[in-house]
Amino acid sequence: MDYPSNFIKTIIEEDIKNKKYETIVTRFPPEPNGFLHIGHARAIITNFELAKSFGGYTYLRYDDTNPSKEDEIYVKAIEQDIRWLGYEPKSIFYASNYFQIMFEKAILLIEKGLAYADFSTQEEISRSRGDLHLKGIASKYRSSLSIKENLEIFNKMKDGLYNEGEVVLRAKIDLESNNINMRDPVIYRIVKAIHHNTKDKWIIYPMYDFAHPLEDAIEGITHSLCSLEFEDHRPLYDWVVQNCEMKNEPRQIEFGRLTLENTVMSKRHLRTLVESKKVSGWDDPRMPTIAGLRRRGYTKEAIKEFVFSCGLSKVNGTISVEMLESAIRNDLSIKARRVNGIINPLKITITNYPDDQKEEFLVPYHPDDEALGSRIITFSKNLFIERNDFSEVIPDPKFKRLSLGLEVRLMHAYFIKAEKIIKDIKGNILEVLCTYDVETKSGSGFSKRKPNGTINFLSIDDAINLRTNIYSKLVTGEIKENVLDAFNENSLQIKYGYCEKSLLNFKSEDKFQFIRNGYYVIDSTSTKDLVTVNEIVQLKSSIK
Ligand code: ATP
Ligand code: MG
């Protein structure tokens, strides 16, 4: 798969042509406060693929400037997910390793008269910064403190002589700016929490808008790619880089966020689902996280194909889940072995087949790819077919399955004809008695009659117990304040059926097709007595 062209690629091509940069350096900068999701996959793929296509490289940088929500567990998971997608960061950095430089840069701003301490409350500051209609108003600290006093206060902040919220450091830029981000943003605050990396070394922490451009510049990032919500922050980004006198001046370029239709993507909501135990963890197969998609059976190739096929737009876009589903179908249709599974079994007895006879057929795992090998399936008097493959009355003329008096082909075996239905006292169908025609054996070249379709089956003697986990959307309807109010209690359905013996040779995480049904993956909880599989996606023309 070649990385398709897009507007950022064009910008970088120009920059290279103009000899602005020799080596392209990008970074993926997650905050380790949750697992990565499919939206992050766009950011990862964009950063790594762009740098790669120009012979450059990409760093992974943990943007860990906010100690209260961050955790080592997320650091590990993020790394695992990036590697699973097939990317190896050139180096792994932590923003927190630059806290000393950032502190010194803040001092530089104070010395240049470009930063000041402010003892106003958080509400006062946010009110005084105005809004779209109202310009900002200067706080009384803006001009009343000397550079010396500001330096002293900032050092005392660092030494823990103030309480959280008592005082902050603000950049002195332009209270009249049309861009609210430029109206003297807070650049340092006091947080008395243990940081996952620097532990209790720091009491003051830089704000994202101050820290991020410095991190990029320190690492020599040439193109700082980020999602669209940072567009209005770009003037501040450039202001920080210039006024902190950074040698490198990275260029920030924004792209649209990728959102999946009807899918919870916000980390806050995902965390609530995990903490409430409504899902089994961040890697629950229903979660839109990379770890969840992996457990659900998605391949990295499918995720890449999906991200590539969405294109890279300058605007935020909502993509239908079908696009993601079609990417995994495309990938698995050529790679996955195909086997028989019966999710909702119906018993069939072949009345004219000898009681103690059993036939074996060697059949390929894939009709178009011999390299995927073959396995033995068996045929005998007692079979299972899918309940939906039988109908007492013919529902419509296009019905290509089994019904009384109709004949179908059992895939790889014989034609059978339904003769009689056996019901319980409530009228439920317990079993269908059929006859088979020995002349119609698959591969014999029989052509005197055409069957009314082909269905799949299992021989009861050889059927293995099967548990199928079937997933659907995590939430239904609109999410208001609390995601739990919209949680879909039916998002996991469990069905017990049967599968063919060959599945006992499949390993955990192996993906395969249940013929005429869908793609599945062997779950890590699967055993020989109960093969457990997760539904990845149904076939487009599923029998369900
Ligand atoms: P939060 O949900 O807490 O706002 P976030 O999704 O922005 O967090 P980060 O860890 O800050 O998470 O994101 C890392 C990078 O991934 C950022 O550069 C961000 O722009 C990008 N990113 C995050 N979500 C998406 C998305 N849906 N589509 C494209 N890029 C995204
Ligand atoms: Mg973010």
SSE inventory with pairings:
Blueprint lengths: L6 H11 L7 E4 L9 H16 L3 E6 L9 H13 L7 E3 L4 H13 L3 E4 L3 H7 L12 H4 L2 H12 L9 E4 L14 E5 L13 E3 L1 H12 L3 E5 L6 H10 L7 E5 L2 E3 L6 H9 L14 H7 L3 H11 L6 E3 L1 H15 L1 E3 L1 E2 L2 E6 L7 E7 L9 E7 L1 E5 L3 E2 L10 E2 L3 E4 L4 E9 L5 E9 L16 E2 L1 E3 L4 E8 L20 E8 L11 E4 L3 E5 L8 E8 L6
Parallel strand pairs: 1-2, 2-3, 8-9, 10-11, 12-27, 14-22, 18-19, 20-23, 25-29
Antiparallel strand pairs: 4-5, 5-6, 6-7, 13-26, 14-17, 15-16, 17-24, 20-21, 21-22, 25-26, 27-28, 28-29
Helix pairs in contact: 8-9, 12-13
The structure holds adenosine-5'-triphosphate and magnesium ion.
Structure description:
The protein has three domains: 7-259, Rossmann fold (3-Layer(aba) Sandwich), CATH 3.40.50; 260-335, Glutamyl-tRNA Synthetase, domain 2; 345-360 and 379-460, Beta Barrel (Ribosomal Protein L25, Chain P). With 544 residues, the chain is an alpha/beta fold. The longest helix is centred in the first third of the chain and has 16 residues, at 38-53. It has 13 helices and 29 strands. The strands form eight sheets. Strands 12-27-28-29-25-26-13 form a seven-stranded mixed sheet, covered by helices on one side. 26% of the residues lie in helices and 26% in strands. Bound molecules: adenosine-5'-triphosphate and magnesium ion (MG). The site of adenosine-5'-triphosphate has 15 residues, from helix 2, strand 8 and strand 10.
